[in-house]
Structure formats: C-alpha cells, structure tokens
Amino acid sequence: MHEMEPNHIAPWVVWPVLKRSCDAALQGAFEERNWPVVISLAKQRYKSTKDPYYLAIEVAGRSQCDNPSDQTAGRDAVLKLVADNSTLVKDVDALALYESSCYGAKLSYSETIGVLRSRLVKAKPKDWSSSSQCLMSCIYNSDWLHAQEITASMEKNFPAEKRCRIQNIFTTHMYSQTPACPVGSRELLAKLAKLRGDKEFESRGLSKTSDDHSAPLSLTASEAWLWIELQSGPQTPLTDKIAAFQKHALRLLGSGLNSTFVEILLVLEKQKAWGSVSQICGQVVDKAIDVSQREASLVEKKQAEILQQRRIQKKSSDKEQGEGDAGHAQSPASTSGQNLSDNKDSIAANDSEHAKHVAYKVVRGQRSDQDKAYLMLAMDPLVWNSLVNSASEKENYSQTLKQLRKSLDKLMKALVRSGEAKDIDQSRYDRVHLRILFLRDAQSAPEPEAASNTRVEHLLEYILKYHWSVACFEDVRKFVEALNHEELQMFIQKLGREALKEGEVSYNVDILSASFMYMLTHAKNKDGDKYKGLTLVAILLQIRFLVATSTRDSTVCKYCRSELDNSDCMSCFMSIVKAALENYNAGMRDDNLRYHILPKTNGDPLSDLAMVGSISLLKLARVGRSPGYTAGSPLHLADIQYILQAIIWLDSYLTAWPKNNPLRMLLLKLYLLIGCVSRAKSLWAQFDIKNAILDSLGPLFFDRISTIAPGLFGPGASIRRNPLRPFIDYYSKAIRSTIPKQTVEAFKGGNWHTIPSMYEFGEGLKKSCTLVMAVIEERRGLRFKAGHTLTSIADDPLVCNLNLNYELKDMTDYSYLPNFGGKDSMPTEVLVGQGPMLSSTRAHLSLLTERLVDLLDYAQPKDFKPSRQGHVLSLDREYVVETTEALRLQVQGLLAKREGLTGPEVHYYCIASMIAKLVSDFFQLYVSHKPTSESGASIDSSIKEVLAVLKEQTTDLLTVPTNYHSELRAFHGFVSMHAMGTLRESIFLVKLTAGYLTSTLDKMKASDKALANNNETTWAVGQLKNMSAAATASAAEIKSRIKTMKQLVEGGGWIDRLRDWAFTNHAQHDPQREDREMIAEALNVAVDDAAFERWAGTVVDSWQELMNGWSAVKIE
C-alpha cells in the first residue's frame, strides 16, 4: 500500500432497526419515517424508563428533520459524547443509531464513532457480540486504528478463540500501513506485528531456526500471504527475508499453495535476489522434469498393458467367432487383401491412441498434490522468465543462458512425452527461446553476420509458426526493435518472400532489387494459402510501421534511410498505405476467404490491414502536430483528405465485419474528432460497457463530451438521468457500499489476502481522473441546458474532499486502441484524441473552476433576512476574499503545466484565474472600504485582461486555418466543437462574474445610501457592463455560427461535397499528387458508390443531430 492524502468518501450507512423491546407505536413511526412522532414518543419513553437508548432514538429522529438546527443533532451529540470521557455508550444498538444520525455530517469516523466503538468494547470486554459488531463497523469504515484496539481486546478476553490472534496480527499490520497511522508509530507497530506473527507462524510449521522440512504446514493461503507480508516489510533485514523465502518457498508449493510461491518469487525479484530466484525456480523445473519422465514411463507401461490385454481379449473373441463360423461359405474372392490390411492398421492405431488416453487418465489420477503443483508452476512462463532474468544478471550470462535453454528443452521434451504439454505451452516456450537467443547475441557475437542471420531466422520461424495468433505482432515487437538496419532489411525481405508464396498477395518493398520487385509483382502462387499470405503481409506492415516510428535520436529511418519528418518516416507510411490497400482489396474480393475461412480463424488480416493502413493515413495527415495548448483542434494543421479516407476505410470494413473491437474504438475516436457524435455514440453502445469497466474505458468516449455535444444532455436530462449518471452511480455504489461490504465479508471469512487488494482498488477509484471527469462533464452538460449550476461541488461526496495534495491518476485502458508504433512515438490514443489525455492537473483545474462557479452562482435564500446586514456582508467579504485568493494561487500554479490542456482550455482556466483575482480585489475595494493605492488600477487591469483573453479565444474559434481550402470551410466548424463549447464556458463565467459583482454593489448601495451616487461605484458599474457586453458579443458569434452550420447541414449536395473532400486533390503544387491518386483509386475500389453514399448519409445525419443539440443550448 502507498501513503497518500486520502480522498475521504464515507460509506453508506444502513439505517438501523429498533429493538424488539420498543413498543409497536414507536417502531411503526420509525419504520414509516414519521419523525415528529418518533421524537415525541422517544422523549416520553426516556422520561419513563431513563434508558439512554431512547435518547439515541430521539437524536436519530431529529437528524432526519427538515429544520437545519435539528439536522445537526447527530453530529452535536456524537461530538459531545467523544469530548466527555465520563459518559459511555454501552449499548451497541444505541451507538448504531448515533452512527446513522451522523451520516453526511462530514465527520472523521476514527475521531468520533470509532472512538465510541473502542470505548464500548473496553467497557464491556466480555461481550462477544458487541465487540464483534463494533469491530465490523470499524472495518466497514476503514478505521484500522480502532479495529486494532478492538482485536487486541478480543484476543486478551477470548483466549480460546484462536482466530483472534491472527485478526490482531492482521489489523496491527494493516494499521501500520495506512496513512492514518502516525509516522513515528509505523515502524514500531510493524515490528510488533512481525514479532507476534513469527511466533504464531512458527507454531504452524514456518520455523526460522529448524531445518526439519518434513514438518507439516498448517496454514491457509491467506495466512501464508500474511506471513509473506510480515516478512517483506522494512523491519526485516534483507538477508533474513531472502533466507526465509528461499527456505520455505518449495515447502509452501509442496503444500499446494501455488499462489504463495508466486508471491514469494515476485518479492525475491523485487529485492533482486537473483541467486535465490535461480535456485527455487531451477528446483521447480528439475522436479517437474523428474515427475514428467516418471509419469511418461508409467504411461508407456500402462499403455502396453492395456494393449496386451486387448490383444488377448481379441484372440479369444476371434477364436470363438471362428468356431461359430465353421462350415459357412468362404468370403468372396473379390475381397481386397490390401483393404483388409489397411483396416487392421487403422483399428490398431485407434486402439493405441485409446489405450494411451486411458493410461494418461490412470496415471494422472494417481498424481500427488505436490506433483501437480510442480508441473503447474514449471509450465508457468513467470517461472521461465524469472530464470531468464536471474541468468541475465550474471556477469558472463551467455553460457548460463545456454545451460538454461538446455534445461528448458529437457523440460518441454519431458512434458511432451508425458502428454502434459499443450500448444499454448509450446508458444510460450518459443517466446522464451527467442528472448534467450537475443540476450545471448547481445553479449557475445564473435561472428556478427552469423549472429544476425540466426536472430532473423529464428524471428522469421516464430512468425511463420504463429502467424494465426492475434498476439503475434505484440509477441515479436520488442525483438524487432532490437534489430539493426541490415537485419531489418534481411528480415523484411525474407518475410516478404514467405508472404508471396501464399496466395494472391502483394508487397512493395521499396529498397529491394529490381529482380525481386519483378517477382513481387508477377510470381504469385495461386494455390497457396491466401489467409496465411494476407496475415503475413499484415504483420509485415505492422512491423514496417513500428520501425517507421522507432526513430529515437535519429534523423533518418532505421529501415529505408529516408529523412525523417518530425521523427516520422513519411516514405514508409506512404508505402504501408498503398500495400495495405492493395492487399485489402484482394482479400475483400475473395468470398471464400471472407465467408468461409475468416469466421473459423483466430485472427483477421483484413482488419489488421485496414487499421495499419488507416493509422498510416493519419500519420500522413500530420494529425496532432500542433501543440495542444496553441490549437483549437487536433486537426488544425491536418490534411483532411487523408483523415476522411481513413474513416471511410474503417467504416466500410466495420460495416462488413462488425465484430472487431479495436477497429470500432479507433473509428469511434475519429468520428468524435470530426463531430459525428451520434455515430460515435452508436459505436460506443455496441461495447455494452458497464460498472468497473467504465473507469478504465469511459474516457475514450466521454472525455470533453459536454463541450463537444451538449445535445447529449437532452430535454429529459437531469441530475438523476443523463449520460454520465452511470459513472456516478457506479463510483458511489463501489466506494460507499460494495467494497466496504466485501472487506467485512473477507475479514469474517479469514480471507486476509483479498483485503489489501480491495483497499487498493477503492483507493484507485478515489484517485481516478475518470471519477473527476464524470462529475465535471455531468455538471457542465446540465449547465449547458439549464444555464446555471444545479448542485454545489462542495455537496458532492465523491469529490468534495479532493485537494491539490492528492495526486490523481489516469486509469484509462488505452489497449483497446490498436497501437503499432514504437515505444517513443506518439501513441494512438494521443494521435486520435481531442487533446491531451486525462491528468491530475486538468482534473484539479476543473474542480477549482467549478468551486469558483459555485461561489459566483450562490444566492441566499429569499427568506433569509438577517438583522445585522452589515455584519453579514463583512463575513461574506472575508470568506470571498480568502476563497478567491486561494483559488487564484492554485489555478495559476497548475497553469504552469499547460501542455496537458487544449488551447481553449488554457483560455478558460486563464480567465478563471483572472476572475478570481478580480473578485478578490473588487471585494477589498468596494465591500471593505479599505482600498489600497493599487486596488482600482488592479481591477481595471484584471477586467482588461479577462476581455483580452475572451476576445483571443473567440478569434481562435472563428479563424479558419490556411490549409483548409474554400471548399473545406464548413468542415472546420464540425471539428472545432470543443473550442466552441469551451468558449461558451468562458462566456458563462464572465457573465456570471459581472452579474455577481453587480448584485454585490446593489446590496452595498442598499445598505449605504452614500454609495448610490458615488463616482467609484458608477465607474465600477460601467466596467461590469463592459464585461457583460463583451461576453454577449462572443455569445452572438457562437449563435451565428450555430445558425449558419445548422442551415448548411440541412441543405443538399452533401454526398458530392463529401466525395470531393475525400477524393479530390485541390492543391496546386502537390509533390504527393501521384501517390494521392493511387490511394484514392484503390479506396474507390474498396468502397463502392452505394457504400460511400450510405457512409455520407450517416455523417450528415450525425452532424444534423449535433447542430440540433447545439440549437437548444443556452449560450449565455
């Protein structure tokens, strides 16, 4: 577990049920939530019985009333009980009522209810039921401090309960690991847990001193995990923990605790104890070899016995049948002797296989648990890779790796002989073999050419063997990156030759000889395996893309030696697109391949060709080349024709073959980029993503969605019904109910090992940028429709406690997007993103700005009429000045990391920072009447700065880049939706500020008549009107843009217009003209007129829906 500033999110409280001893009237009123009656009856019962339980009922009832003074009854009562050590709540049911009455009061559980729980247990130490209830309540609320105190008491007072000892050790360990534990106490508590743990586990067979390995182990997997945890802490010297793990690892494995062995192995690797890793993993492999060889011999012996028994039975049967057939007519002479012989051979082979199968079953049925464990671990690639890791750490590791390979070869042969090896084991072994080969060649290569040829041949062999696997490219990626220029040329040439042997495929290898180019074009084997050929070409093109983007610290391409363009090889990308299109079209023409072969195969080469070709088109289009904080759109400087061609290609294949998640996600992101939100939404719906997966995949669709398509928050949208509500519901239920309940159940069941992972999972949700994204997008989306905020961020339990000390994490799983690029290249999620990815900086900026919005949008209740208006204004001033000044400093500090923002977002947050300063200065000058000599000038300067940035933001939205020719002007509007939505947020903030400060001046003038005609006040009113007028002018530009775009998209001619954008080259002098024409021609073959018209209709419908949604937005 990692120390962090906790984002405290209180779990839900289960409303208690009254004791059966309560009368029916009180119970009925309580169940019906008739709180006035509950309060009255509880008072009466307390008066007559003096039972404190009825006081707790009264407090619980008052806490549910509408009166603000009553709503704090629970909090006030609990704080009073905590402060008064002489008053103890000895009734666990009464304490449950007090706990429920505090729900939502923003109290620290460990400082309030937890204290009372611990006191109750100490006051009633022999009450098992009360102690257990209090313990589970503390665990439910992650109060490990008082959970530890309670388990210590229970261990002392219930010595016969053995589970109490382990529970106390566990809670002590957990508390020492949590941020709530004082720094000075952590080491002491960790040592205490380990000392007590050593004593406990020594009695279970894990002795530190005894060398008797035959002693049985008496512990569960969870208890073994706890032993590892205690040994792994910093309180244990490194040599001691390594010795303990090395001593007991195989004993634990032999006891069937496979997962415990794996955990030990991971700890040893983390500690870099390579000698111990090599020893225990080597022993596992050796024992597995012995087991496999022994079982293989037993299988062969058993098979021979079965066959011998069957032969005896067969002879006996034949003899009886021969005696019964005596005297009958002979078989016809025409019966073929050869046919009889073949039939006998076939029967013999079947008998042999059946006998072997039976022998396997018999022998494996006699296998011990220990042998099962060794075989299972010996086939685990984790063990193999651990052996490779340990071997590669030695000074002269080439010879060690050679010996390791011999050992693993021996293992695989033994597994094959015993029938234990499966295809997946062989593929894993082949990958380890490749790794060993590359590591050995990296250290010693006396003959470089021979070594290079060996690496190329083995890499080629692996691809040819596993080309059908969807993971083939990922498996060889790191090995390809290790090849040098000469090896790459050799490898790609040989892989190209292999592809050409199979079916009608084509691959244009740019720098090969003319004779080989002729062979590529003409020597096609029609009888080959087209599926294999296309798969090999797809892998080859993916490798070309990888190499074209693996260009760190280089000015030329590693493969073709062309000059790089911003670390990308445009020559390779063009070659990839043309080859991918040509082979894609060849595959699409083959109905047998599409309808009979592909449905039965694991991989889909046509999909791979479409994806690598489309991403290469995006690279050629130079998508995302403009820095995010200077451009209004990632397509600001992009070649739109290539982008549209990529979308058309992907959409065409997805329509023909819809079961393809990576391609669908890539297409979804591209549709969002061009404003086709409804089409993207329909693709998103096909994933059927719910609950936990929302946290990791939700941002791929919903990030910045409120600024792009506020229409998604339609007429029926509300706090309880909008596109982001599933996120909020999931986080609320998981953090506030599911995880706490599962933690309690795990503790009750003694499943200690699952509790830290639950804790980490909950903390991961709390620190997820997706959580903040969901809250912010929901607020913005609803604000777009309502024109004002609906709830305060301070009242949102999921984010109200977040502060800048809490580092948020981007939990998005980008592996759903295809990524063929090198490790240092721009990943696909950045290439097709609306802007920079989720980040802690952006999340905190959005929360801070929402807090500013809440401050400016707050309105006192109409029935609030204080007797001392001046005093209230003074308190307001202090609060506003303090809050806005803090917000300004925090926003300014975060804006130093503006590379994580889009251009429009930089403008918006800059305006927020300036407005925070303006409000602070304004209140100090006009409300406090304590102006400094610089106050007036500062206000004037702040207003001018706000208006200057607003004007710049408006201009950026309206300016069409020079690379958008006249026919493309309309398209620019659809790709700039995020910029328009963010400008609308800026307008709202400026208008809100002007209204808020004007309202403040009105209050001041009402309370001080002298201000009514004051020159300063008149000047201020004029400045605020200027602010409002500037915001109105920007809003008018947005309204005009929406109107124009709506009219345009509702007009005709869109099919021809989109065809022109996608296929007509309007450039006067284009060095790529010939290549463009080739691509356009090939894509026209891939997408016929009917498919194109269908696609164009979908795009136009989506744009129409987008603009209809924008038409309903309140711009100001």
Outline the structure in words:
Among the domains are: 180 residues, no CATH class; 56 residues, no CATH class. The protein is built from 48 helices and no strands. Helix 30 runs antiparallel to helix 31 and helix 45 runs antiparallel to helix 48.
Which strand-content bin applies to the residues?
under 5%
Secondary structure tally, helices: 48
Low-confidence stretches: 1-5, 509-527
Helix content: 55-70%
The largest β sheet comes out as: none
N-C termini distance: 47 Å
Give the structural class: mainly alpha
Average pLDDT, all residues: 88
Q: Count the strands?
A: 0
In angstroms, what is the radius of gyration? Answer: 37 Å
Shape: flat
Biased composition (Basic and acidic residues): 315-326
Biased composition (Polar residues): 331-341
Keywords: Coiled coil
Region (Disordered): 309-346
Topology (elements, then pairings):
Blueprint: H1 24-31, H2 35-49, H3 52-63, H4 68-71, H5 73-83, H6 92-101, H7 113-123, H8 128-140, H9 144-157, H10 163-177, H11 183-202, H12 221-232, H13 238-254, H14 258-270, H15 274-325, H16 337-365, H17 369-378, H18 381-392, H19 397-417, H20 423-443, H21 448-466, H22 472-481, H23 485-500, H24 514-522, H25 530-549, H26 570-588, H27 591-597, H28 605-620, H29 640-656, H30 661-673, H31 677-685, H32 692-697, H33 699-702, H34 705-708, H35 725-748, H36 754-766, H37 769-786, H38 828-831, H39 840-857, H40 869-894, H41 903-927, H42 935-958, H43 969-975, H44 977-1007, H45 1015-1049, H46 1054-1063, H47 1073-1086, H48 1089-1111
Helix pairs in contact: 1-2, 2-3, 3-6, 5-6, 6-7, 7-8, 7-9, 8-9, 8-35, 9-10, 10-11, 11-12, 12-13, 12-14, 13-14, 13-15, 15-16, 15-17, 15-18, 15-19, 18-19, 18-20, 19-20, 20-21, 21-22, 21-23, 22-25, 23-25, 25-26, 25-28, 26-28, 26-47, 28-29, 29-30, 30-31, 35-36, 35-37, 37-39, 39-40, 39-41, ...
